[in-house]
Amino acid sequence: MNGVVEVVAGIVWRDGRFLAVERPQGKPQAGFWEFPGGKVERGESLEDALVRELREELDLTPTDMELWQEKRHDYEHISVRLHFFHVHAHSGAVVPHEGHAWRWFVPGETGDVPFLAADTEIVDELARWANAKRS
Ligand SMILES: Nc1nc2c([nH]c(=O)n2[C@@H]2O[C@H](COP(=O)(O)OP(=O)(O)OP(=O)(O)O)[C@@H](O)[C@H]2O)c(=O)[nH]1
């Protein structure tokens, strides 16, 4: 194991829904859903990494982003420190350059879609937060 890998993940919002993507075949944990993002490159800021990853993956450019939560997670094959951002605004429409399936989810209505282990808590938190806002 080579230490902890820094990863950015964007919770992209549109009309009260958030975007999630399915990890494509050929990647570790293929078939699990996650927030778009990826590994931070050497010398890169978190914001720059997020903008680069969202452009590469989906052709989206975040224009208003806010760091929300950071958490460490140890998988069998990798340890990651995840930096979750809320992306309140973006330009572009989704074009999945890397073969991702993608969906906009209403918080609390993700059904039995399997999210990565580190993300399930986040998905639950978004549901609680949306519930609290409604009541
Ligand atoms: N992109 C992303 N990765 C996540 C999330 N949650 C989570 O645990 N991860 C983990 O963080 C790591 C990110 O790696 P990645 O494979 O997406 O990154 P990448 O595209 O830059 O990598 P690569 O070029 O080596 O394939 C994976 O081990 C993944 O399991 C998430 O919400 N989004």
Can you characterise this structure?
This protein has 135 residues and is an alpha+beta fold. It has a single domain (4-134), classed as Nucleoside Triphosphate Pyrophosphohydrolase. It is built from two helices and seven strands. The longest helix has 18 residues, at 117-134. Residues 7, 9, 27, 29, 34-35, 37-39, 73, 78, 80, 82, 116, 118-119 line the site of 8-OXO-guanosine-5'-triphosphate. Its EC number is 3.6.1.55. GO terms for molecular function: 8-oxo-7,8-dihydrodeoxyguanosine triphosphate pyrophosphatase activity; 8-oxo-7,8-dihydroguanosine triphosphate pyrophosphatase activity; 8-oxo-dGDP phosphatase activity; 8-oxo-GDP phosphatase activity; metal ion binding. It catalyses: 8-oxo-dGTP + H2O = 8-oxo-dGMP + diphosphate + H(+); 8-oxo-GTP + H2O = 8-oxo-GMP + diphosphate + H(+). It holds the Pfam family NUDIX_4.
Multimerization status: single chain
Mean pLDDT: 96
**Which percent band covers the strand fraction?**
35-45%
Bound molecules: 8-OXO-guanosine-5'-triphosphate
Largest sheet: 7 strands, mixed
CATH topology-level name:
Nucleoside Triphosphate Pyrophosphohydrolase
Q: How large is the count of helical segments? A: 2
